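dumping the sequnces here before i forget
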Amino acid sequence: MEYKVSSQLMYNAEEPGTLVLNIRALQGDNESLVIEPGTITYLDYRSDMDRLLVLPVVEPGEVSISYSSVVKSQFDFIDFSGLSPQPVSELNPAILLYLHPSRYCQSDKLTRMASRLFGKIDNEFEKVLAITEWIYQHVEYLSGSTNGETTACDTIVQMAGVCRDFAHLGIAFCRALDIPARYCSGYAFDLSPQDFHACFEAYLSGYWIMFDATKLAPLNGFVRIAMGRDAADTAVCNLFGKIYGSSIVVNSELISGTMDPVFNTMNSSVGISYR
Amino acid sequence: MEYKVSSQLMYNAEEPGTLVLNIRALQGDNESLVIEPGTITYLDYRSDMDRLLVLPVVEPGEVSISYSSVVKSQFDFIDFSGLSPQPVSELNPAILLYLHPSRYCQSDKLTRMASRLFGKIDNEFEKVLAITEWIYQHVEYLSGSTNGETTACDTIVQMAGVCRDFAHLGIAFCRALDIPARYCSGYAFDLSPQDFHACFEAYLSGYWIMFDATKLAPLNGFVRIAMGRDAADTAVCNLFGKIYGSSIVVNSELISGTMDPVFNTMNSSVGISYR
Amino acid sequence: MEYKVSSQLMYNAEEPGTLVLNIRALQGDNESLVIEPGTITYLDYRSDMDRLLVLPVVEPGEVSISYSSVVKSQFDFIDFSGLSPQPVSELNPAILLYLHPSRYCQSDKLTRMASRLFGKIDNEFEKVLAITEWIYQHVEYLSGSTNGETTACDTIVQMAGVCRDFAHLGIAFCRALDIPARYCSGYAFDLSPQDFHACFEAYLSGYWIMFDATKLAPLNGFVRIAMGRDAADTAVCNLFGKIYGSSIVVNSELISGTMDPVFNTMNSSVGISYR
Amino acid sequence: MEYKVSSQLMYNAEEPGTLVLNIRALQGDNESLVIEPGTITYLDYRSDMDRLLVLPVVEPGEVSISYSSVVKSQFDFIDFSGLSPQPVSELNPAILLYLHPSRYCQSDKLTRMASRLFGKIDNEFEKVLAITEWIYQHVEYLSGSTNGETTACDTIVQMAGVCRDFAHLGIAFCRALDIPARYCSGYAFDLSPQDFHACFEAYLSGYWIMFDATKLAPLNGFVRIAMGRDAADTAVCNLFGKIYGSSIVVNSELISGTMDPVFNTMNSSVGISYR
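..and the predicted 3d for all of it:
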């Protein structure tokens, strides 16, 4: 499958400053990037986890960014039936940091809850599926119900949130159960209304497997932008100086291939791992 | 200067599990490491930021780790008088993540406070010195006053904490002012009583500069073990399974050279940057 | 039934100060109160809700309080089958304040959770029973797991607590559902080990009905000391000045009558209302 | 001085429910109250602390309340120079509950901070003045910066708030220093823009003394509506059922006498105590 993803963002700079954008598809191809005013000379930075655009804004005024890319979606189906959990001692130590609590995922506070709710499930994939289902059943998707300070623990109490909050809670439960987990932002096919989306990935038997507790978009229609510990690492935009966002338009469309949408469902044993 | 640093740690394993230790000097030399029982075959992992020991514990029982190393202390004095702040747009993008809030350093909640208290100081080194002095003046060093869930915001309200809390608050204020900052654990010469210590490093004009708001040990007597976003990344030990710590003995002694102790003081313009 | 309840409390005063004790049975009879040193002249204060002893401690030293009373247990069984909920507009306005959130019972944060978990139950007694059962099933009774700052929202996340935390959560859920609720401290027959105990009362169809989500002591063996919005109002002791508690011994024994222990159980429609 | 105070409130009821209003002047005279639709038969409730209107809303639709009153302002100036603090043991025990922490005033968390900032001031009036001044200096008055969950501890960290938050912080500091304190809502002369206002009262040497850390309205132009532990007790309106506020208009004007505005200032020793 091939997707055409695009985003147009507008900012108002009251004074000079810097925009750090995190909107490029991690494996984007045929990319187009138009920044206005054209005098802005941006810096392009690529890591394993993200592709940042650093834009120094020298003069006050409006800044507009228009990005599009064609992305070939590449992932594997991994069957976890019969796979046993990987002990922490056999993990690649570079993965261990995805067990640490982070700003929005206070896994250290959730060990008892995670253990009581999900501790008895042996198969790790089923365990994370159960987490995903629990969140889907207990948390109401409600635009505007949370803000940039809302944490996984807040979401448990409030029982409402948006994709970001669903992902944070999934990550926090996983880490509390000694399963590495990370946040993943991206473009999502068939998400309505179109917007940037967030999921989480759990590290199971050597694969990063994608989970989406919102069930609002198919797992196999995701185009990844960035991975990180939580939303703090993958913000669409970090603003330095008096610069304010004014509008965002996001789109994702299938341009070749057909897609048979896959969602997290109980009793499945097959996960999706993006390459 | 050369330091001999050492630590002896004891754990009780009620069941098989894994210990991940973060106790080796980052630039240790002449290292000795004795683990008992000797049947434990550990994995050694080195990154830019830390050196992990991953110990699978196969049988219940006592585990003891005895480590020592001789470390040549290497750092530079950087004079910041007259240096202007580095704009975010000129930072190496790999450094940007040290501007993100983390588990214990909710810099996103502290922008107004940091700006009101320290925002008017132009020189960035002086700004971080002022942060360090504020913490020193306002927070009481009180063993046992905090726990593993205590955050920078908690410390502002409680006005008490230990080295870890002092460092978290320093980091949070720096990030709230768009200054990258990270946590640093290590051995500390002349710290009484001897224990693992924690400081923070701020990224100023291209250098990671060490700050210690506790003023309990000289900045130039620090032997770094690990750097990370906060204490979540640099724990002396992460325990997986029913394994419990029973004792820790830590030591650091000067074995060659003389040291003229340096502490953070107002009106200084010289910082210490470890290599 | 008649109970003999007693408590012995010891305090160490490092300097002069004041002790405010809240240990007398609300309907105590045949009371004995011995305070040492005998020079302390206490003030006795009685309200509808509690009976305070205010003890000025003039000299440093040990203070011991020894209290006992014989209490005739008086309560009614109220059958709620078929009773409809009382609308807020028909409540005695003096009761309305038990709908307000308080220090440990942030009912304002729990409206969605309470509504989703219990909102569909029509009968109000069954609603509070369901709350009680939910707490009993989800929260682990674990001595020492919480402290004087722990709130109802914390307990939801931690899933552990002591009687005080069980009561706070019950109260918070009730208020979130527009059911007045208050905290109740007392002596509890058949509680093991013996200690002061806490329950909560919900105001249903004109009666304050007792609930105990810990199920650790029979509802009909409770001797009430104080009622209030939460533990902040009913502390066994408030200490002013450098005075520290050193020991507490509590006891409750049945001295006449027989008791057929009653606990909160699902499918019951009968509640206990103390006079 | 005589004030004419008035308020017009509009609500939209999507379904039947109950409004509990707390808008009447505590010592109102010549009162006018018009409620539409006129079919609503309200209940009037008066306590020492407030005067509630309980309005059952039987049918969906718009509800409007129009209130006005003429109030003779009655208060005394109390000179605290030379007055010593009243020990807790000499307080009327009925006042003790104003020492307890409450929903928005977690005084239990602020004992160290309050003691370090204000503990050395002997005169209690000066102590509360210093609290008031500290809040005025440190907290920015910023409409919309807080919400119904914001607590005194949040305000310390955020350094911004509205009158309600200023009052909560003042109350929390007082209680942390063993000074009884309560929240006070009312009409405020010369407040711009006109709105309901909030102050706090501290209990000093037998008098409830008014303090206003916002300094936005004169202390001697306040017409009290309600007192309580914090905003939870004195809400302008508590809504039960799907009823939503649509507009509020508030006014206060001087109709007889002249007023020489009094604000809290350092170095004053005279407080205002409303009768």
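Chain D is about 15% helix and 40% strand.
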